Amino acid sequence: MITFLGIVAVLCVLLALGFPVAFALAIAGVAGLAATGQSLEIAAEVFYSALDNFVLLAIPLFVLMSRILMQTGMGDEIFRIINAFFRHFRGGLAAGTVVCCAFFAAISGSSVTNAAAVGLVAIPALVKHGYPKEFAAGLVAAGGTLGILIPPSIPFIVYGAITDQSVAKLFLSGVMPGIMVSLLILTYAVFVSRRRGYGVPDTPMAWSERARIVLKGSGLLALPLLILGGIYSGIFTPTEASAGGVFFTLVLAGAVYRRLSWPILWQCTKDTVHVTVMIFAIIAGAKLFGHVSTTMQIPQAFAQWIIDAKIGPFQFVAATMLLLIFLGDFLDPISIILIVVPVLLPAMAVLKIDPIWFGVLMVINMELANITPPIGLNLFVIQSIQPDISYDQVLRGTLPFMGVLAVAILIVWWQPGLATWLPALAR
Question: What angle do CA 348, 45, 18 make, to 5 degrees?
């Protein structure tokens, strides 16, 4: 145990010095191999086994699809469709922004991409119609987090690979909580808008004009139906669905909307390679770190301690949620899942905690991590795409929505059926 604590200390020091998470995990893992007298050649074997997983192939494909949608500006079309039905009442533009975030989440799989794609269009529109910059930035930052809860979700893919759970069932488990979180954010946004007089309603759009806009965007509206419908009907695996989604997105961007060019496709490819390599490097580093902890029987010792201390599921989940909130201040969601879940799995088995339900709780907690300082990724994304809005303004605007997500965690904790009902139907 003392040796493992020393390895954890090495990891913490490296992270504090600003090392990339993947390298910090790998270096700590190599230090663990040396400390336990294992051959360093094991590292190569662990790295290979970490990435030798068909499920992980969905990650670069979903990333590429979301990058194409963002770079070609097709998020504008989604916002235009939804705004046509919400623009005519006070708070309607805020409500439409949340709905847009939820819809884009169903085709992006990424919190950061969701916030960026919607924020580029929604924040200027919100400010133009009388919403304060802080509120607009906070709303999009919080709404963007839906990208990792509403399927397809990259964190669910990673969690499924670690826990050996069905990714399709994990996607199903995120549907009801995703709708619930969307409604919570929307309700709060509309309530505040009406109470404080935010936003100037537009004149209602004629139904003929709405029909024209919907018809023009029908291809985009069909995209989530293609992906999720194919997965849930059993026609596609999540990986096959991601490939189909990329193909359909390329057709939409190139042949239908005519916004795709070779320079844009090249930029999307480079962005995808960058994000994928980063995620896969973290997975490989975390796998080596996990190998060391398993070799030293840390997860088993932790599970035995849970038994000896007679800790119940309630105390275990409460302590874990607090730990995740703390870690979310310093690490990105993928890193947290990869570091924490392998250690917790044996204890979850002892306490008979449903891994599907726990995965949803964890992902909602990661939503909170995406908007909490100092490493809340969505805070930086909003500030970078809207340079006239300071980081402090984004943070102040996001604070109330942190409370909304905390309430969402409590609701799913109190009502596990929100997460488990749909996956149970698929058994």
Answer: 70
Sign of the Cα pseudo-torsion (394, 396, 399, 401, in order): negative
Q: Which two tokens stand for residue 86?
A: 């919400």
User: What is the model's pLDDT at position 2?
Assistant: 63
132 prior amide bond cis, ω within 30: no
DSSP string, 259-279: ---HHHHHHHHHHHHHHHHHH
Spatial distance between the Cα atoms of 85 and 90, rounded to a whole number of angstroms: 12
Return the number of other C-beta atoms located less than 10 Å from residue 48's C-beta. Answer: 11
Rounded Cα gap, residues 282 and 339, in angstroms: 10
| Cα 1 to the center of its chain, rounded Å | 33
Q: What is the distance between the terminal CA atoms of the chain, rounded to a whole angstrom?
A: 40
Q: What is d(CA 75, CA 345) in angstroms, rounded to the nearest whole number?
A: 38
Angstrom distance (rounded) from CA 407 to CA 399: 13
Other Cβ atoms closer than 10 A to 10: 18
Tokens of 422: 């749909």
pLDDT digits (tens, 9 = 90+) for 245-268: 899 999 999 988 889 999 999 999
- Is pLDDT of 273 > 90? yes
As a whole number of angstroms, the distance between CA 317 and CA 369 comes to 17
Per-residue pLDDT reduced to its tens digit, 320-342: 998 888 888 878 888 889 888 98
Q: What is the pLDDT of residues 397-427, one digit of tens each?
A: 999 999 999 999 999 999 999 999 999 887 6
pLDDT band at 143 (very low <50, low <70, confident <90, very high): very high
Measured distance CA(139)–CA(399) in Å, rounded: 10
Cα-flanking dihedrals φ and ψ of residue 234, to 5°?
Answer: 85, 5
